[in-house]
Automatic annotation (TrEMBL):
Transmembrane segments: 44-61, 81-99
Classification via Pfam families: RDD (PF06271)
Membrane topology term: Multi-pass membrane protein
InterPro entries: Pra-immunoreactive, RDD
High-level lineage: Bacteria, Pseudomonadati, Acidobacteriota, Holophagae, Acanthopleuribacterales
Protein name, UniProt field: RDD family protein
């Protein structure tokens, strides 16, 4: 940096001594991801809030679908049989759609919006749709939720190369 701390020209950006701005990658990486990891308690809150939201959201959508079929004079019994006759499959599909939609397109679920956290790649880069897909699929591993007992990063974080950080 120049001695007098003024830019060489009024049309040039001032120089800086900060090395965490990541100018070489266009500013798309978050500096120091590990120092900003969301706490285990916050991650647990995300799980509770997101689960409640996806269950309620899809329950309303299913009821709306059945109501729409009834209004149009279509027998809803085949749809009811599929939606309520296979609850584990239906819940798994709902969970997949919820997480993939929000994390795939926004990099955050509604609970993460509320707590001002977001998902980024482990190197601080912006979450990709593919990494979000890996995160979503890894949530279906049995006992995956217990992976947070000994670490701030769960299996779906490590397996997809992502982290949840405070904004």
């Amino acid at each position: 940096m120049r001695e007098d701390r003024r830019p060489a020209s009024p049309y040039h950006a001032p120089e800086t001594d900060r090395d965490d701005l990541n100018i070489e990658d266009g500013g798309t990486r978050e500096p120091d991801v590990t120092a900003r990891l969301a706490s285990t308690g916050l991650r647990f809150l995300h799980a509770v809030v997101d689960t409640a939201l996806w269950v309620v959201t899809f329950a309303m959508l299913k009821r709306w679908l059945i109501f729409t079929l009834l209004v149009q004079g279509i027998d809803p019994n085949p749809v009811v049989t599929v939606l309520y006759g296979m609850p584990l499959l239906t819940l798994a599909l709902e969970m997949f759609l919820y997480y993939q939609f929000f994390e795939g397109f926004f990099g955050r679920t509604p609970a993460k919006f509320l707590t001002q956290t977001k998902v980024v790649l482990a190197d601080g880069g912006r979450l990709t749709f593919t990494a979000a897909l890996k995160r979503t699929l890894l949530r279906f591993v049995p006992f995956e939720a217990l992976s947070f007992v000994a670490s701030l990063t769960g299996w779906h974080d490590r397996g997809s190369g992502t982290r949840v950080i405070n904004c």
